[in-house]
């Protein structure tokens, strides 16, 4: 059967700060897909998560509507007020006004649970006096009882087998007012809602406030009324820390045996662990999950712990002075032997303990390889990295809850993004360059085409005219110069056409090493230049247009040589990938400056003196490689402070 949730998360409000995970002593909060979810089976109902959630994302089950129906249906509905009420209703100066309001709402009787506490304290006293060499744990806090039966079932034998003051009150009132009474407990605690089926209903002070808001109008006459019988004695002090002890000490002494009172979830879990391990030796251990019942989740968020204590104490002091001792004693004698025996059974919900290896695997995923990586920072809500790992294995936690891990992941993402960005930037640059070159190509092709014909005519007529003169004649020499310069123009125009051309590529099977060696032989190599050829290609033969590719190699080699007038080394490195034949031309020359590197493929760009460079070498190479559907890249450094000076051109030609 599915258990009805006592506390649950309002998902829209949860900001996943993990404070509920941190404050949950039962580790009943699961983070899944970045959402905090309460596992009802594991929840002990302490309501710590309700208290610590600053977003109001943790809500508990409420019963205002049920109380209205109950009051309509039954004539004898009794309100039992928890003794912490003075800490909640501090705005009401006279408690009789509160009782009066409850009567007005329709309650048959209004009684204090404090009298039940008086009887329970007596029975604790008797029980403790019979216990030797064993530690008894108080069982009046339902969250503590839940915690022990779920997570430390072997300590059940230590829990006092005595009912709580709430149940005691129910039994006393049934005896006093008849079997047909219906009891509603009103207090600060939400775990009480699941403590016993003997009561008709349990609501918190917050729900009571809501009921009063609905039912009491400002103009209503409220008759001041005292609590109905049986009135509480010192048991009214019960809700503050050591309250039970103080209630007991009023009667018989527990003796001079050791007694420890511990409250708050940070401390009680520690005490239970120590007790289980055998380190804690005490006769009686009074445990409260909250810091006294005056700090319960069912109270308004106002006033501090100490001012609340004072309010309860002041109420009790006044009460003790005015109490009708004789009447109290009479009641006490009548109900002191009421049966409050209780059997507590285990509901084991302990997490399975994973193997050391499993834990280590998760820790490694979190980047924690050795003890020094365990920051135990608590940001995830677990106090140690190992606890977080165990919770992760048990499906309660996620890796992303670890702050150092998430920061590391974020850094990696930023790095990946940076790489992508710079790739994008260089692709954009290349695109811009190729667009520029394409339009340049169109223009050049147009001009070259138009110039070619008149140049042909000039050459032809100059040659015809030349034949009419003697070679010694000045006219002959002038015409020869015209022919020579016209030829030069034709060469330039030819270069332009090469850059823009859409010629066919005639692929030929070529031995790459022989081809490279031959390319060096066809140029004039100065003595101060050393050439090294490194062949890392596993294939011997590749396919490309022999003549065109020879122009590419020759031009790149010439450029490299011209960049090393003082001598140097040219390295030709041949390699292959699945898709490309790759040849690198690496020189130790002058390098290309940053401002020039974007211009070198532009026709007529040259840094060489007039007559030496045309600025058509690289545009030609670019055109040929483009026709081969390959690519050419350049890397260069011209500043010694940035490392080795020189230039590397990388030519990649598709293999298929
Ligand atoms: P040219 O060689 O006629 O100047 P290119 O198109 O072949 O024309 O080269 C253009 C320019 O690129 C050169 O003037 C030179 O500044 C630069 N360049 C090309 N290759 C190199 C290299 N290996 N080292 C240094 N600069 C180079
Ligand atoms: Mg050149």
State the share of residues found in helices, binned by percent. Answer: 40-55%
- The fraction of residues in strands falls at 5-15%
Whole-number count of domains: 4
What is the alpha-carbon Rg in Å? 47 Å
What average pLDDT do the residues reach?
90
Associated small molecules:
adenosine-5'-diphosphate, magnesium ion
Number of strands: 18
Low-confidence spans: pLDDT under 50, at least 5 residues?
Answer: none
Secondary structure tally, helices: 21
N-end to C-end Cα span: 68 Å
Report the structural category: alpha/beta
- General form: rod-shaped
> Which strand order does the major sheet show?
13-15-16-18-17
Biggest pleated-sheet summary: 5 strands, mixed
Please give a quick description of this structure.
The protein has helices at 19-23, 48-52, 64-73, 85-88, 95-105, 114-130, 142-151, 165-177, 205-215, 243-250, 265-277, 305-322, 325-335, 356-365, 385-393, 403-467, 474-500, 512-521, 546-562, 594-597, 617-627, and strands at 7-9, 29-32, 35-38, 58-60, 77-81, 109-112, 136-137, 182-187, 201-204, 259-263, 284-288, 507-511, 529-535, 541-545, 568-576, 580-587, 631-637, 646-654. The protein has 656 residues and is an alpha/beta fold.
């Amino acid at each position: 059967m599915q258990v009805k949730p006592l506390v649950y998360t309002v998902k829209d409000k949860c900001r996943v700060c993990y404070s509920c995970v941190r404050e949950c002593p039962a580790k009943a909060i699961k983070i899944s897909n970045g959402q905090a979810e309460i596992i009802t089976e594991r929840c002990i109902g302490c309501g710590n998560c309700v208290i610590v959630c600053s977003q109001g994302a943790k809500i508990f089950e409420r019963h205002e509507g049920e109380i209205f129906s109950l009051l309509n249906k039954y004539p004898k509905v009794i309100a039992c007020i928890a003794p912490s009420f003075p800490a909640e209703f501090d705005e009401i100066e006279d408690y009789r006004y509160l009782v009066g309001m409850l009567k007005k709402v329709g309650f048959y009787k209004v009684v204090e649970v404090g009298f039940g506490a008086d009887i329970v304290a007596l029975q604790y006293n008797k029980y403790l006096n019979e216990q030797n060499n064993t530690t008894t744990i108080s069982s009046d806090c339902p969250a503590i009882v839940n915690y022990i039966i779920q997570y430390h079932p072997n300590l059940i034998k230590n829990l006092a087998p005595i009912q709580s003051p709430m149940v005691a009150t129910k039994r006393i009132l049934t005896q006093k007012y008849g079997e047909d009474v219906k009891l509603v407990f009103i207090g600060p605690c939400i775990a009480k809602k699941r403590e016993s089926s003997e009561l008709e209903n349990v609501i918190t002070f917050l729900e009571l406030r809501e009921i009063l808001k609905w039912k009491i109008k400002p103009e209503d006459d409220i008759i001041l009324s005292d609590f109905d019988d049986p009135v509480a004695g010192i048991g009214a002090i019960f809700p503050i820390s050591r309250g039970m002890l103080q209630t007991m000490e009023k009667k018989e002494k527990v003796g001079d045996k050791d007694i420890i009172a511990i409250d708050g979830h940070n401390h009680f879990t520690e005490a239970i662990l120590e007790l289980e391990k055998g380190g804690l030796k005490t006769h009686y251990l009074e445990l409260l999950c909250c810091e006294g019942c005056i700090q319960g989740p069912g109270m308004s968020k106002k006033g501090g712990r100490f001012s609340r204590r004072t309010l309860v104490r002041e109420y009790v002091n006044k009460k003790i002075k005015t109490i009708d001792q004789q009447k109290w004693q009479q009641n006490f004698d009548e109900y002191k032997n009421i049966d409050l025996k209780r059997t507590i059974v285990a509901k084991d919900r302990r997490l399975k303990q994973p193997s050391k290896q499993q834990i280590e695997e998760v820790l490694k995923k979190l980047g924690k390889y050795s003890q020094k990586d365990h920051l135990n920072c608590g940001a995830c809500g677990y106090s140690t990295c190992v606890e977080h790992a165990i919770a992760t294995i048990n499906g309660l936690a996620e890796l992303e809850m670890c702050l150092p891990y998430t920061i590391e992941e974020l850094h990696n993402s930023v790095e990946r993004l940076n790489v992508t960005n710079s790739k994008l930037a260089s692709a954009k640059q290349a695109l811009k360059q190729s667009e520029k070159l394409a339009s340049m190509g169109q223009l050049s092709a147009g001009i070259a085409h138009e110039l070619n014909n008149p140049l042909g005519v000039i050459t032809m007529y100059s040659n015809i005219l030349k034949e009419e003169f003697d070679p010694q004649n000045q006219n002959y020499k002038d015409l020869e110069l015209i022919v020579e310069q016209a030829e030069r123009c034709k060469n330039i125009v030819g270069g332009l056409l090469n850059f823009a051309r859409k010629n066919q590529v005639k692929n030929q099977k070529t031995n790459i090493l022989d081809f490279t060696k031959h390319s060096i032989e066809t140029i004039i190599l100065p003595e101060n230049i050393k050439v090294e050829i490194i062949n890392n290609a596993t294939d011997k033969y590749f396919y490309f247009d022999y003549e065109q590719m020879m122009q590419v190699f020759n031009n790149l080699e010439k450029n490299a040589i011209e960049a090393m007038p003082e001598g140097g080394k040219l390295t030709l490195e041949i390699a292959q990938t699945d898709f490309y034949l790759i040849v690198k031309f690496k020189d130790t020359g002058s390098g290309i400056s940053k401002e020039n590197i974007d211009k070198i493929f532009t026709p007529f760009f040259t840094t060489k003196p007039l007559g030496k460079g045309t600025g058509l070498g690289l545009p030609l190479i670019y055109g040929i490689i483009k026709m081969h559907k390959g690519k050419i890249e350049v890397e260069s450094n011209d500043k010694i402070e940035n490392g080795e000076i020189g230039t590397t051109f990388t030519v990649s030609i598709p293999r298929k």
